[in-house]
Design brief:
The protein has six helices and 21 strands. The chain is α+β, with helices and mostly antiparallel strands and 439 residues long. The strands form four sheets. Strands 5, 8, 12, 13, 14, 15, 17, 18, 20 and 21 form a ten-stranded mixed β-sheet that branches. The chain has a six-stranded antiparallel β-sheet with strand order 11-10-9-16-7-19. It holds the Pfam family Neprosin_AP.
């Protein structure tokens, strides 16, 4: 059962009792004190707004940060709370409060694994199976690791309601069936992509091994990410999307670290869904991987290359959409009941990179995608996806057919696909953003 918020009500009662008597209140949440200044008695309107904002922030922090069995301080400044599985944010969702947790999938997709490939290229490309916080401790069985949300995280957001959500500038009313969803999104919102995609069939999952870098992000309201999308529905209306990958997002995390993330929406990013565990939805069952935590180590230009493997698939029996990190770490699932348009299958799969181009001062952003280098530079310099696979209705991993590529501005970010016996279907992608050919 989710944590109860009884002490929040107590604070609201205390605020009313002391409304005209005090001007400084200390609000304590999860053992941390925050001072909120201002009261109506002072007549300072700005102070009133500040106080109410502080109260809203603390109330939301209390909702996000569940009671910890154990807390771990990471060297990157994160605090990882080990929270009982039954107390995670998912069960705040009205439809999931009586949900019976499925601790493991009934079926796992069958097909090619990375083991053959790994033995051939282990000297040049290495699998990442760790996060930075793991150097400082581990979470016990029966708990999940949750990155603690801090006051500053919420204050960076445009609003508390928008915290942890993708920002969309405007929403179109319809899409052309000949366009990929990323093509439509980028035309409307200023998000730019370099992707490969498949559509026109039923897809029950997707997999890829993704090269991990630390791209430069020009300003805090932009991001750079590399991910897998599973999509069904119409953008701007009822698009259902399940997403996972790595990202650099200063606004969301307060730094430029490369972090593992997930995202979901059922209404085309308008109201439902969020990153990681910032809202109720995804049910985590694994005690080793923290969503939103820093990935380490990272690839270096001309040096060692590191990658992560991500698999998302639908359990044929119960219909839940499962997430796996690496070859054996099953992290948890998105309940089938969340996704009306993914109830059967996805209709589009996309793999690739995305950045926000805010066009500051009328110029294209210098935010990098991938490694910040273009596909033609190849291994060790450009970022890549390899071993692309889709899951069939028979729950088998298969190479995708009829792969298409798309980029918004090839002089800013580009993509180049190929096939080899060791990498299967792969592509290089990315770029520097603003340059002499991308003004």
């Amino acid at each position: 059962m989710a944590a109860k918020l009884g002490h929040v009500k107590t604070w609201e009662e205390n605020m009313m009792i002391c409304f005209f008597l005090i001007s400084i209140h200390v609000v304590t949440i999860a053992g941390r004190a925050v001072t909120a200044v201002g009261s109506a008695a002072t007549g300072g309107g700005g102070g009133d707004v500040n106080y109410m904002q502080k109260l809203d922030v603390q109330r939301h922090l209390n909702k996000l940060n569940k009671q910890a069995v154990k807390s771990i301080e990471s060297s990157d400044g994160d605090i990882i709370d080990c929270v009982l599985i039954s107390n995670q944010p998912a069960f705040d969702h009205p439809e999931l409060r009586n949900h019976k947790i499925q601790m493991r999938p009934n079926f796992h997709p069958e097909g090619r694994t990375n083991l053959e490939e790994e033995s051939k290229v282990s000297s040049i490309s290495k699998r990442i199976m760790s996060q930075l916080w793991q150097e400082s401790g581990s979470c016990p069985n029966g708990t999940i690791p949750m990155r603690r949300t801090k006051e500053d995280d919420l204050l960076r957001a445009k609003s508390i309601q928008q915290f942890g959500k993708k920002k969309q500038k405007s929403i179109p009313q319809s899409t052309s069936s000949s366009q990929s969803q990323s093509e439509v999104i980028s035309q409307i919102t200023g998000h730019e992509h370099a992707i490969v995609y498949v559509q026109g069939d039923k897809y029950y999952g997707a997999k890829a091994t993704i090269n991990v870098w630390k791209p430069n992000v020009q300003q805090s309201n932009e991001f750079s990410l590399s991910q897998i999308w599973l999509l069904s529905g119409t953008f701007g209306q009822d698009l259902n999307s399940i997403e996972a990958g790595w990202q650099v997002s200063p606004d969301l995390y307060g730094d430029d670290n490369t972090r593992f993330f997930i995202y979901w929406t059922t209404d085309s990013y308008r109201g439902t869904g969020c990153y990681n565990l910032f809202c109720s939805g995804f049910i985590q069952t694994n005690n080793e991987i923290a969503l939103g935590a820093t990935i380490s180590p990272l690839s270096g230009f001309g040096g060692s290359q590191y990658d992560i493997t991500i698999l998302i698939w639908k359990d044929p029996k119960q219909g839940n959409w499962w997430l796996q990190f690496g070859n054996d770490k099953v992290l948890g699932y998105w309940p089938a009941s969340l996704f009306p348009n993914l109830a059967d299958s996805a209709t589009v799969i996309e793999w690739g990179g995305e950045v926000v181009n805010s066009e500051s001062n009328g110029q294209h952003t210098t935010t990098q995608m991938g490694s910040g280098h273009f596909p033609d530079e190849g291994f060790g310099k450009a970022s890549f996806f390899k071993d692309l696979q889709v899951v069939s209705e028979e729950n088998k991993l298969l190479p995708p057919s009829d792969i298409s590529t798309y980029t918004d501005k090839s002089n800013c970010y580009n993509v180049k696909s190929g096939y080899s016996s060791t990498w299967g279907n792969y592509f290089y992608y990315g770029g520097s953003g603003r340059n002499p050919n991308c003004p």
